[in-house]
Write a structure and sequence with these properties.
This protein has 3 domains: 4-311, ABC transporter transmembrane region fold, CATH 1.20.1560.10; 319-403 and 481-538, P-loop containing nucleotide triphosphate hydrolases (Rossmann fold), CATH 3.40.50.300; 410-476, no CATH class. Helix content is 63%, strand content 11%. It contains 17 helices and 10 strands. The protein has a 6-stranded mixed sheet with strand order 6-7-8-3-9-10, with helices on both faces. Strands 2-1-4-5 form a 4-stranded antiparallel sheet, covered by helices on one side. Strand 9 (525-530) and strand 10 (533-538) form a beta hairpin. Helix 3 (54-98) packs antiparallel against helix 4 (109-149). The protein is elongated and about 115 Å long.
Length: 570
């Protein structure tokens, strides 16, 4: 009923669990002294007619105070051990994950977070509650049996015979419980991961009208999780009922055996029989507590085995190639899909020279989907994606991201100073570089000590986007990808940002997604997406002449801007 592999995770902390067991046994001894003192007090008053029992009362009082102190010490030890175990295991787990020493593709980010937080909390309860209670419940009945044999051996035999019925009932449900808890954790982790993915991809789900389908899927997952949770509760209730029946039934039988032993002269005194009746419950209470802790242990042990699987993952052999620069990005004959639904067909894209490249199209056409492929967040359904002629999945992630930057209008700013936000993007940036970048984006009035609120709620949207751009200007990348960075900002900020992007494209490869065709006019190449296809690849002037769909969008935008300008002038 104990997992050696899980115990081995504790290393030196295992000894502390045995200290808790020894303190519990000491507590039992104090309880026996209290019961014996109470019985002897009755004997002194009734038979010996001694009414001065102050010494016995003092002994009882001291034992009660010692028991209270021991309970507090045990609770404190459990808290300290639990906190240390949680810290140590989280350091081990997340160090393993961050070092990428294993294949964790079968675990999504949310599952790893749930195991690292709630899973380790449940596992710490297994260590601090179940393991000490297991040893205590094994030792205490044996000690009580030896004591009772000197008083009334028939009652001792009855008690010892009934006590194992509790662990037998635990074992009877353990196999079923293991399966239930394994399914429970799988459902729990899966549902959490799906929920996170749906929240992150809400925009895409709305764009491609898949939100209702995903909602139905989430409803089904939630219903399955509810059912398995109900099964866990039913199993726990049945198990508790069986243990209570055995516990109280065994105690009652033991009491009857003590009375019968008194009638037959096996027990020398009615006071000894009373002592057996009072103490008889102590035979069963440790096992009863073990039964209650069993359900905690099963939950923690199930999570612990999943954590062990991660910790025991063999280090991934990194035979991927590293790149020192990005000379060429190429996507050929690619189909891109979400959940097996093809979004873009026959995609061909090439970036092999410094300059501005743009992807445009109507809202929901799939522009940002291509960015997800380039950022390696979305694999191709079919086709080829290469960097410098090497298939992208054969290139080391770190070296790829070291030479590329992905900037989105959804980029997040933290509730820290401007200086600290700079360091999050580029830990090696100097203060001089930071101040220079702020000047470029016309934010020189802000000091590096300026405190930003969460997601920059104390500045305008345009200032926020310029701050984000400034952070990335301190980086030296080969490829810069901008995803709608001028979305929902004022015209002044838009002009500043676009001028910087144009300047950057003179010496770097820059790929930009923009809803405003006016911003992409200087592009070396424009990829125009329409109806799930890259309909045209050309310069702005040629697209206006040769592609009526592109020209229609451009004309409508020009007309709208003209109307807005007229209103502003009035």
């Amino acid at each position: 009923m104990l997992d050696k592999n899980l115990l081995n995770l504790l290393e030196k902390d295992k000894k502390k669990l045995f200290i808790i067991t020894l303190l519990q046994l000491t507590n039992l001894a104090l309880s026996l002294v209290i019961y014996a003192s109470i019985v002897y007090s009755l004997y002194s008053i009734i038979d010996l007619k001694r009414y001065n029992i102050s010494v016995l009362l003092l002994i009882i009082l001291c034992c009660v105070l010692l028991k209270v102190s021991l309970e507090a010490i045990i609770g404190s030890l459990q808290s300290k051990i639990g906190a240390k175990v949680q810290t140590d295991l989280r350091v081990k787990l997340f160090s393993k994950i961050l070092a990428k020493k294993g294949d964790f593709k079968k675990y999504n980010q949310q599952a790893l977070s749930q195991l690292g937080l709630e899973g380790i909390e449940q596992l710490s309860l297994y260590y601090t509650v179940y393991v000490p209670q297991f040893f205590y419940s094994m030792i205490s009945p044996i000690l009580l049996f030896i004591l009772f044999c000197f008083i009334a051996y028939p009652a001792a035999i009855v008690f010892l015979f009934c006590v194992p019925l509790i662990p037998v009932s635990i074992i009877a449900v353990s196999k079923y419980a293991k399966k239930i808890f394994a399914i429970y954790w799988d459902k729990y982790l899966s549902m959490g991961g799906d929920f996170l993915d749906n929240i992150r991809g809400m925009r895409e789900l709305k764009i491609f009208l898949s939100d209702l389908r995903q909602q139905e899927k989430m409803d089904d997952n939630a219903e399955e999780f509810r059912k398995i949770t109900m099964k866990v509760l039913v199993m726990q209730l049945w198990s508790t009922s069986i243990m209570d029946f055995v516990c109280f039934g065994g105690a009652a039988i033991g009491m009857v055996a003590a009375i019968i032993s008194l009638q037959h002269g096996i027990v020398a005194s009615p006071y000894l029989a009373l002592f057996i009746i009072i103490v008889g419950a102590e035979f069963f209470l440790p096992m009863r507590a073990l039964g209650s802790a069993f359900h905690i242990s099963m939950n923690g042990a199930t999570a612990g085995k999943k954590i062990l699987d991660i910790l025991n993952e063999e280090q991934e052999v990194n035979d991927k190639k590293t790149i020192s620069n990005i000379d060429e990005i190429r996507i050929e004959n690619a189909n891109i899909a979400y959940d097996d639904e093809i979004i873009l067909k026959d995609v061909n894209l090439k970036i092999n020279e410094n300059g501005l490249y743009s992807i445009v199209g109507r809202s929901g056409s799939g522009k940002s989907t291509i960015i997800k492929v380039l950022s390696r967040d979305l694999p191709l359904k079919s086709g080829i994606f290469t960097t410098n002629g090497i298939e992208n999945n054969l290139i080391d992630d770190e070296s790829y991201y070291k030479r590329s930057a992905f900037v989105s209008y959804q980029s997040h700013l933290f509730a820290k100073t401007v200086y600290e936000n700079f360091l999050i993007v580029n830990p090696y940036a100097t203060k001089e570089e930071m101040l220079k970048a702020l000047q470029k984006v016309n934010l020189g009035d802000f000091s590096l000590d300026y405190q930003l609120l969460e997601n920059a709620n104390n500045i305008s949207g345009g200032q926020k986007q310029r701050f984000i751009l400034a952070f990335y200007l301190t980086l030296d990348k080969d490829l810069y990808v901008f995803d709608e960075v001028t979305s929902n900002i004022d015209s002044d900020s838009e002009e500043i940002i676009m001028n910087i992007i144009y300047e950057l494209s003179k010496n770097k490869k820059v790929l930009m997604i923009s809803h405003r065709l006016k911003n992409v006019i200087p592009s070396k190449v424009i990829y125009f997406i329409n109806n799930g296809l890259i309909e045209s690849v050309d310069t702005h002037d040629n697209l206006v002449l040769n592609n009526p769909n592109y020209k229609a969008i451009f004309d409508v935008q020009n007309e709208l801007e003209g109307v807005i300008l007229c209103k502003d002038s009035n």
